[in-house]
Amino acid sequence: MNTFLENQNWRYATKKFDATKKISNEDLEFLKEAIRLSSSSYGLQPYKVFIIENPEIRAKIQPVAWGQSQIVEASHLLVFANVTSLSDEDIDGYVENIAATRDLPLDAVTGYGNLMKANLLGLPADAKNIWSAKQVYLAMGNLLNAAAEKQIDVTPMEGFLPEKVNEILGFDALGLNTTLIATVGYRHTEDATQHYKKVRKSNEELFITL
């Protein structure tokens, strides 16, 4: 079997982490780079990723994340927060980055910036928020795949109260909203879930060729 598919069969949403096992700095940098290289609409990456190592902060988050033990037991806690209202400044900064990275005059990419502004800035506030939140899921996908390659466990979570996590981390003042949480580390030998067969739809049920 292809190694990528083997890794996908190996990974699962870990329910109990081994708190004694920590991710190395080298592997953490690998995961960060995988997230950084994720695709996003227009390449804008309208989100921030907070790596929560502080045990006191994690202890505050656990009760508003349904008390899930992974929050405090995993090696690292990653909080993905989307930009709630994309602005002219966000797009201008991205366009300037394109010009600098590709050694282009700014006016060569101004049109692309204007296209993004025309398509995005006029959206209602809730639509902007939904659009940017969707981009976070692409980054999470890259994290899951990269971690599986390193045999590092990740549990993606939607089971938390976003407004409470926002309050704990001061996101409202930063124009951010908690979209997803990921606990990252190594499965505990006592986690029975790792032995469950993976349940997915069959090809016949999932795929339709037209």
TrEMBL record:
Annotated source species: Flavobacterium faecale
Superkingdom, taxonomy of origin: Bacteria
Annotated keywords: Flavoprotein, FMN, NADP, Oxidoreductase
Pfam families per the UniProt record, alphabetical: Nitroreductase (PF00881)
InterPro entries from the UniProt entry: NfsB-like, Nitroreductase, Nitroreductase-like
Name recorded for this polypeptide: NAD(P)H-dependent oxidoreductase
Keyword Transferase: no
Cofactor(s) needed by this chain: FMN
Boundaries of every Nitroreductase domain copy: 10-186
Any GO molecular function: oxidoreductase activity
Family, per entry: Belongs to the nitroreductase family.
Coiled coil: none
